[in-house]
Amino acid sequence: MTHARGFFSLPALLCAALLLAGCAGVQVGSISPAEYLAQRRGDVLTTGRLSTSAQEVLRVIGSDADLCLKDGQACRHALADSRGITDEQRLSALSEVWLQVALTEEKSGTATKAPATAAIDAWLETARYAYAYLFFTARNPRDRAFEDRQTQVRDYYNYAVQQAITGLFSRYQKSNPLGAEGAQPAIPQVADWHIDSDLSALQLPTGAMLPRELIPAASLTFSGLRNIYRRDGFGAELVAVTDERPHQDRVPYRETPFPALTAVLKFDGDDLAQVLATRSLRIVAFDPYKTSTVKLAGQDIPLAANFTSGYGLWLARSDFALQALRSLFGSANGLTQPRIYLMQPYDPNRRTIIMLHGLASSPEAWINVANEVLGDETLRRRYQVWQVYYPTNAPLPINNLAIREAVTQTLAHFDPTGQAEASRNITLIGHSMGGVLSRLMVSSSEDKLWDALLESYPMQGAQQVRIEKRLAPYLRFEPLPQVSDAIFIASPHRGTDFANNRIARWVANLITLPVTMLGQLSDISRELIRIAPGKQDLGPLRIPNSIDNLSDRDPFVRLSSGLPMNPRVRFHSIIGNDTPGVPLAESSDGIVPYASAHLDGAASELVIPSQHSVQENPLAILEIRRILREQLAPAEAVKAPGAAARP
Questions:
Q1: Cα–Cα dist 429/507, whole Å
Q2: Bridge partners of 618?
Q3: Containing H/E element for 328?
Q4: Is residue 212 within 8 Å of residue 242, measured between CB atoms?
Q5: CA distance 45 to 49
Q6: Angular region, 183: left φ>0, alpha ψ -120 to 50, beta rest
Q7: Which residue has the higher pLDDT, 46 or 470?
Q8: pLDDT at 24 exceeding the cut of 90
Q9: How far is it, in rounded angstroms, from Cα 344 to Cα 385?
Q10: Model confidence over 518-530: pLDDT tens digits?
Q11: What is the distance between the alpha carbons of residues 127 and 121, in angstroms, rounded to a whole number?
Q12: What is the DSSP string of 567-622?
């Protein structure tokens, strides 16, 4: 018996072991890092499938992703009614399930110009459940700061807000193609939602009630911009496209035509039950430059922002490159007077940076400079950027006067009393010819230009009085008192021999000054010729074009390079060197020699291996940011003028 029991027990044990192995309920495997991240962070927004977290909740209540997709209403009811899951699980899953509905509805309605009611309703439900999860559960957002699920739900909220608002805007435009001037526009009705708006914190250009377009910043990509600068937080990052207002033909300034804005949805209710029951909400829009936090459900929450997309869209749509060439050669539709573009809504509490481009150029010269300056959080909080766009075919004296007047008028418009921070401690940044003009704007002519003219053209009595009165604005000027700092980049302060070569002279012969410019001085020029008919050189007032003015032989440039600058102004030089192996004093960026760009007494001087467009060099941009940060330091910490130059 003992033997028999032993004989039968061994096969039985083996069989049992095989059965147990074959019926194992859990097996183990391995996944790649990419699969790991997909499991942790993949969701319906990024992969089109419900996240692992949502699927887990569905399985707990006896459902799954497929069943939820087939019978969405029953699935949502089951999620809302189940008591076997936490509020966080329920609300986050409901937000994602509604997001799936919204994406499906939007896809099915792509043939129509305006989103269907069902799609907008689903976006609002997505945002509502995300809002409830984020702010009305037992834990607040700080308690979940390192959890992937909160990041996902925040994204559901932000994307749903973006889609709901742009959808409502699209429906409004369809029903009101001409807009509603002079009155607060009515928000289109969606299902039984009651939707209100608060635009009090949003600053659009003067006279603009509504933008012509409302574009999600995340939908835009750019070539030519090195970086997209944004701030993580809550809300939809949008770009408003506004129309040019009729009055802009009569003023030199242009308020930002593509302002950035961030919008949030606030649902009525003081507790979870009220938020889930409400059908009322408010759209609140903010200027992200002025507002960095927003109060949601009684908590201060960081406001999302995109600081680059509006700037990039402006450059892409402005056609500056073609217009700059038309202006240079005096063609139709070219620029005849300077314009000052504000890169963001005017802020009286921020210092002003004014950028001036060079010959045959436009604000496109500052593509990455302006973006990188405003991409620095410290600088963005303390500065605003204005860009001067001026006709580069005009002679230096005319542009010097016209730009001065444009800056003065712009400051007077936005700050009539002149007491705002924006009107004090202005920084000029000029590249090439823009640097020469910047230097003129901080210089005093004294009587040097007028005396030089008298030496060449002796006059007296009434004739002298008449000519002096006409020429005084061009030949007599003082530093702009609002300017405290200047950065000169590859600037030919003493001219350049490049302007004398054959190609430059050929181009100069093609440049035509508009009749409006010639009319300002041509009668005086003719009178001067009558005074000294044998003279070919009209001294500092000959009517040259811009290339003439950049020549190292030009009388105006030679005289103006010695004018004294305002001693209050700290100035810096950034210079390119494209001649390796040549002594610094004899070097050049290919167009401007070091000897012309160098100025004694600079607070700093940085020479960079670069061709003439040195302002786009990352090292130059870092230097500009350093200088701007230094200007914010206490006065005693700022390097005194005349300090050792930086190599």
A1: 27
A2: none
A3: helix 320-328
A4: yes
A5: 8
A6: beta
A7: 46
A8: no
A9: 7
A10: 555 666 666 666 6
A11: 10
A12: TT-EEEEEEEE--TTS-GGG-BSSSSBHHHH--TT-SEEEEEE--S-GGGSHHHHH
Closest CA to 137 of 95, 197, 74, 194: 95
CA 538/CA 521 separation, integer angstroms? 12
Residues in a beta bridge with 265: 283
Contacts of 67 (CB under 8 A, 6+ apart): 58, 75
CA gap 419, 412 in Å, rounded: 10
For residues 596 and 496, is the Cβ–Cβ distance under 8 A? yes
Q: What six digits make up the tokens of 444?
A: 């005093």
Which band of pLDDT confidence, cut at 50, 70 and 90, is reported for residue 324?
Answer: low
DSSP state, 187?
Answer: P
Number of Cβ atoms within 10 Å of the Cβ of 8: 10
**Residue 214 to residue 386: CA distance in whole angstroms:** 24
* 265, 282 contact by CB (below 8 A): yes
Environment class of 601 (CB within 10 Å of its CB; exposed 0-12, middle 13-18, buried 19+): exposed
Alpha helices in 364-460 (DSSP H): 367-375, 377-382, 396-414, 433-441, 448-456
Q: How many angstroms separate the CA atoms of 278 and 284, rounded?
A: 17
Nearest C-alpha neighbor of 52 from the set 157, 152, 155, 156: 152
Which pLDDT tens digit goes with each residue over 539-557? Answer: 444 455 555 667 778 888 8
Distance CA 647, CA 594 (A): 13
Provide the greatest CA pair distance for the chain. 147
d(CA 339, CA 253): 6
Tokens of 449: 């230009």
Q: Six-digit token pair at 235?
A: 């809300």
Nearest Cα neighbor of 147 from 246, 16, 51 is 51
- DSSP assignment string, 462-510: HHHHHHHHHHHHHH-----TTEEEEEEES--TT-BGGGGSHHHHHHHHH
Torsion, Cα 249 250 252 256, to 10 degrees, reads -50
CA distances from 531 to 4, 456, 528, 540 (A): 140, 9, 5, 15
- Any idea what DSSP says for residue 405? H
Task: Return left, alpha or beta for 429; rule: phi > 0 is left, psi -120 to 50 is alpha, else beta.
Answer: beta
Residues in the chain, how many?
647
This prediction has a pTM of 0.86
Task: Give the chain's end-to-end CA distance (angstroms, integer).
Answer: 102
